[in-house]
Amino acid sequence: MNGAPAPHPFCSECGTVAVLGSDAGLPLGYFVNALSDIAKTHERGASPDVPLTRAQRGLIVRELSSISSFADPFGVSRTAQVEMFLAVVRGVRSDISKEEIEESIQPCRA
Fold first, then answer.
1. What is the reported pTM?
2. For the chain, how many structural domains are there in total?
């Protein structure tokens, strides 16, 4: 070969260059699992009188699904997904702390 770096993979339809490395995006299911973890935390004592209801989880998942870039792990970074997830969850339940949400989406669970 000529020593030139290999081109990054890209979408042949829209031209989006793939996010490579440790900050690559995650599938929507990863964040749905994080919502379940938040709900369990509330049930066990963080705030048992104000649970994260199934309807609220449904609203959050629907909102995340409506963000076209969120569900595209090919073209969005995990960091961007986490910021979007925080904004959507806090939009539905502002009483859930940023720290609690971030704890539910630790990178070690990837």
1. 0.77
2. 1
